[in-house]
Amino acid sequence: MERKHVLTIAGSDSGGGAGIQADLKVFSALGTYGMSVITAVTAQNTLGVTAIQEIDSQVVQLQLDAVFSDIRVDAVKIGMVSNHGIMDVIAQSIQRYQPPHVVIDPVMIAKSGDSLLQEDSIAALQNALLPMATIITPNLPEAEVLLGCKITSILEMRQAVKELAGKMNTQVLLKGGHLDGDAVDILSTGREFSSPRIDTPHTHGTGCSLSSAIAAYLALGEPIEIAIAKAKEYVFQAICHAFPIGKGHSPIHHFYQWDQGGRKAWD
Ligand SMILES: Nc1ncnc2c1ncn2[C@@H]1O[C@H](COP(=O)(O)OP(=O)(O)O)[C@@H](O)[C@H]1O
Ligand SMILES: Cc1ncc(COP(=O)(O)OP(=O)(O)O)c(N)n1
């Protein structure tokens, strides 16, 4: 079968658990060819983020042109984009090159509590970038910012996902990782994707990995609901197989399939 090509446009996580590094691991684990446009470099590990250097928007533009002018792009995932200048450049490139699928994870705050989006760029995120999406995948705090109200239960999630889809004029997968009980994500069609909640601190990068896996499965030709179901199962298994790295919240195990039936990679 022809190899599919997936592009991530996101920030770098030096600890390797989230951002560009997580996205490229997901693309490889799912058998696609990964490419990257870096929007910011974060100094980050399992404990948090200590510095952010945004990439000049002209350099972001040159990365986008380098990829799109040479290589067929079957799907795009967009993650951390911290300022409106970079958002505008990305939105214009999506308009120009028209990739078939665009999955946007509207990254605002890392689980460590560190902010990854400038506050004055929230409007640009809504007005310039989100309209480019095939689907957006906010977590609960991000959906609360986009809607301007609290979401505290599955019942409220069902209502919120429909309101968000109307407001943003796009499909929405509202992730329920921040609630208690089963981990339930709700699509704006009403379909729900549920898994048991794993009792673990090692969930760094789950949101990045879910959106990247959805993009990879869309590139592989899966319809949206199957792409989400497969991506959710992939992330669930990767959480189940996470192993400790560093002193804080470890990343999930992107290549857990490699360990199955054999020796664990870290033994
Ligand atoms: N402890 C957990 N057990 C099982 N699934 C989880 C757990 N935490 C998060 N998930 C799942 O991981 C994905 C990312 O969710 P979430 O943590 O809400 O996003 P983010 O990383 O953007 O904050 C979702 O599919 C969510 O249901
Ligand atoms: C560079 C970078 N991008 C995105 C995130 C957020 O990642 P996420 O998958 O939401 O996981 P947590 O960091 O919240 O665990 C990030 N941390 N860094």
From TrEMBL:
<dbReference type="GO" id="GO:0008972">
    <property type="term" value="F:phosphomethylpyrimidine kinase activity"/>
</dbReference>
<dbReference type="InterPro" id="IPR013749">
    <property type="entry name" value="PM/HMP-P_kinase-1"/>
</dbReference>
<dbReference type="GO" id="GO:0005829">
    <property type="term" value="C:cytosol"/>
</dbReference>
<dbReference type="Pfam" id="PF08543">
    <property type="entry name" value="Phos_pyr_kin"/>
</dbReference>
<protein>
    <recommendedName>
        <fullName>Hydroxymethylpyrimidine/phosphomethylpyrimidine kinase</fullName>
        <ecNumber>2.7.1.49</ecNumber>
        <ecNumber>2.7.4.7</ecNumber>
    </recommendedName>
</protein>
<keyword id="KW-0808">Transferase</keyword>
<feature type="domain" description="Pyridoxamine kinase/Phosphomethylpyrimidine kinase">
    <location>
        <begin position="13"/>
        <end position="253"/>
    </location>
</feature>
<comment type="pathway">
    <text>Cofactor biosynthesis; thiamine diphosphate biosynthesis; 4-amino-2-methyl-5-diphosphomethylpyrimidine from 5-amino-1-(5-phospho-D-ribosyl)imidazole: step 2/3.</text>
</comment>
<keyword id="KW-0067">ATP-binding</keyword>
<keyword id="KW-0784">Thiamine biosynthesis</keyword>
<comment type="similarity">
    <text>Belongs to the ThiD family.</text>
</comment>
<dbReference type="InterPro" id="IPR029056">
    <property type="entry name" value="Ribokinase-like"/>
</dbReference>
<dbReference type="GO" id="GO:0005524">
    <property type="term" value="F:ATP binding"/>
</dbReference>
<dbReference type="GO" id="GO:0009228">
    <property type="term" value="P:thiamine biosynthetic process"/>
</dbReference>
<keyword id="KW-0418">Kinase</keyword>
<comment type="pathway">
    <text>Cofactor biosynthesis; thiamine diphosphate biosynthesis; 4-amino-2-methyl-5-diphosphomethylpyrimidine from 5-amino-1-(5-phospho-D-ribosyl)imidazole: step 3/3.</text>
</comment>
<dbReference type="InterPro" id="IPR004399">
    <property type="entry name" value="HMP/HMP-P_kinase_dom"/>
</dbReference>
<dbReference type="GO" id="GO:0008902">
    <property type="term" value="F:hydroxymethylpyrimidine kinase activity"/>
</dbReference>
<keyword id="KW-0547">Nucleotide-binding</keyword>
